[in-house]
Specification:
The protein has one domain. It is about 75% helix and about 0% strand. It contains 18 helices and no strands. The chain has helices at about 1-35, 45-55, 65-75, 80-95, 105-120, 125-140, 150-165, 170-180, 190-205, 205-215, 215-225, 245-260, 260-265, 270-290, 295-320, 320-330, 335-340, 345-359. The chain is globular.
Length: about 350
């Protein structure tokens, strides 16, 4: 009984320390946001400055994603942009720290939380809207009041609106996610048939479509060179994306560069990005490869894992450099939290065990 009490006390102490650590991280975030942003690297705020320029000029050019994002922020007023961004950042940290079971659990979450906080939450931008979407989906997905079907409807609505107004490739992410879910229960042979059909569709696709999908990589890098960017992690298409074969070769090359950046760029930060990327893929694939979901929690967790994989596969098509790829991927890192959190049934069992220990 004494050992049980010590174990219970340690669990409660760990949770208390985790709460304190989460609070300190939130305070650190706000301190950096309001008093330390001037010391951030210029490349971290380049996209934010573009968006703010559209916000100040009042542009209504919806063909530009920066202008469309500025339009979203204009609903709150230019003077409240920082307040809105900081509020999104705090909400992100709160959701990321919810249902923490131990300090080890918190440390595992911070592996994915801190990169997003540094890259996406210290300045307003397109990723701020994406993170706000992820907060809504994860908060609702971790609630018993929202069913798995309700979560799917929310995904369609939020991603659909974002695709329509800001980044149209988010429609591709949703379509791919549904394709992954639809093929999840197929046998390996039928999955191979699906992959063959996708490759065949790429090989016979019109050159104009392939160019529209993959040319943004080279266009973005060429623009970066014209403004004197010193981006060392640019990734170029090996061949003009005007045929199915070229498209597939470029895709596989970019995927290898993003997954194994240390081979080409050979800097310590690239090794850190590669390890973080491996961790994200491992958690997501584990969420996909588990036994068929039997409850609502498991079905919702499977959808979050599917969305992460869909984001990765779509980004391989056109992302221009490693930094942009990591920034966009970490903007949906909150989807990993449900995968790292015990399902509600397990938590209920743990609470019953704790109550039994007290008695």
């Amino acid at each position: 009984m004494h050992a049980t009490k010590l174990n219970r006390d340690w669990v409660l102490a760990e949770r208390g320390l985790a709460t304190v650590a989460s609070t300190l991280l939130s305070m650190l975030y706000l301190t950096i946001f309001f008093f330390g942003r001037e010391s951030l690297p210029e490349k971290w705020v380049t996209d934010s400055n573009k968006m703010l320029e559209f916000l100040v000029t009042g542009s209504s050019n919806f063909d530009d994603s920066f202008a469309a994002t500025a339009r979203v922020f204009s609903f709150f007023g230019p003077e409240y942009v920082n307040v809105v961004t900081a509020s999104v950042g705090l909400a992100y940290l709160m959701v990321a720290s919810s249902r923490v079971a131990s300090l080890r659990d918190l440390a595992a979450r911070w592996l994915f939380v801190l990169p997003c906080m540094l890259l996406n939450l210290l300045a307003p931008g397109k990723e701020t809207v994406v993170i706000a979407m992820s907060i809504t989906l994860v908060a609702c997905g971790m609630s018993r009041a929202v069913s798995s079907r309700g979560l799917v409807v929310m995904i369609i609505v939020l991603y659909g609106c974002y695709a329509f107004f800001i980044r149209n490739y988010y429609a591709m992410i949703v379509v791919l996610a549904f394709g992954i879910r639809a093929s999840a229960r197929l046998t390996p042979a039928w999955k191979a048939v699906v992959v063959a059909c996708v490759l065949g569709a790429i090989l016979v696709a019109p050159a104009e479509i392939l160019y529209i999908l993959q040319s943004p990589r080279d266009i973005s890098n060429n623009y970066a060179l014209t403004i004197g960017s010193d981006n060392r992690t640019m990734i170029w298409n090996l061949y003009p994306p005007t045929s199915g074969v070229n498209f597939i070769v470029n895709y596989l090359y970019a995927a290898a560069m993003f997954v194994l950046p240390v081979i080409s760029f050979r800097a310590p930060v690239d090794l850190a990005m590669m390890l973080m990327h491996f961790a994200i893929i491992r958690v997501a694939l584990r969420g996909l490869s588990s036994v068929p979901p039997t409850g609502e929690d498991q079905r919702k967790r499977r959808w979050f894992a599917t969305l992460i994989v869909a984001h990765i596969l779509v980004q391989f098509i056109f992302e221009p450099d490693l930094g942009s790829y990591v920034r966009h991927l970490t903007s949906v890192s909150l989807f990993l939290i449900p995968l790292l959190t015990l399902p509600s049934a397990n938590q209920d069992e743990a609470r019953r065990h704790m109550r039994g220990a007290i008695q």
